[in-house]
Amino acid sequence: DETGAARETQIAGEHPLTLYVDKQEVLTMMTLGAAPEALAIGYLRNQRLLERIEDIVSVQVDWDVNAVVVRTRHGLADLEARTQKRTQTTGCGQGTVFGDLMDDIDSIRLPTDVTLARSTLYALLDGVRLHDTIYKQSGAIHGCALATNDPGAEGAASEILMFVEDVGRHNAVDAIAGRMWLDRIDGADKIFYTTGRLTSEMVIKAAQMGIPFLVSRSGLTQMGHEIARKVGITMIGRATHRHYLLYTGAERFIAA
Which residues pair with 16 in a beta bridge? Predict the structure, then answer.
């Protein structure tokens, strides 16, 4: 350390996990490996390679060969053509989006009759701060959370439904997307929290999951801001303790 003393420290794991769909290799992801099944399902969902959870027959993980195998009912239509075009993103560890990054944005419709109270935002930030995380032990990773938003609850509580950490924020959000599909969770009345930057990729994925509120302790990118305005997400960044910046969707936010 800074004094010259040797210290034991925790180091986050990073493992390759190759995704196969119906015996065809799709890509290799670098992951902590905490939720490989949900990660695979959420990746296929957020890349728009599958439209329904019912299209999946089985998911099998084999860490002996670092692979996750997904079997589908009808296969992936035009997989080769859809994966041929790759967009390099700002994500770490994977950083690739298949197809056109802006596909289907115009068709996304987020709820307009929901609101987020400032007291609920503060409750979420307190819950995340107190959450026992791998980041506190080792750093070097990102975390994402799906939380409830009940403005009518006493004290405007916000309960963390799931918290996923991984070496890249895109993996963490994909794992939550997979869990939401598996558990049939609707995103219309939820809040999504991430420790990572609010990039175009993060905004698009939150919108595809149907979540109208996106919160981060970090800042945003110009394209992330543009897309958030286009799809109608209420986006809040630099959110720590009692500080935040409300970037878009102010009509849904209740500061009183």
Answer: 30
Residue by residue, DSSP assigns 144-213 as EEEEE--TTSTT----EEEEEEESSHHHHHHHHHHHHHHTT---TTEEEEESS-B-HHHHHHHHHTT--E
d(CA 140, CA 93): 12
139 in Cβ contact with 167 (< 8 Å):
no
Over 70: is that where the pLDDT of 83 sits?
A: no
Taking the C-alpha atoms of residue 172 and residue 192, their distance in angstroms, rounded to an integer, is 11
Query: What was the pLDDT predicted at 13?
Result: 85
Cα–Cα distance, 42 to 38 (Å, whole number): 6
Q: Are strands 160-166 and 142-148 parallel, antiparallel or unpaired?
A: antiparallel
Please report where in the chains the tokens 């925790």 appear, as a residue: 10
pTM recorded for the entire structure: 0.87
The interaxial angle of helices 169-182 and 200-208, nearest 10 deg, is 0
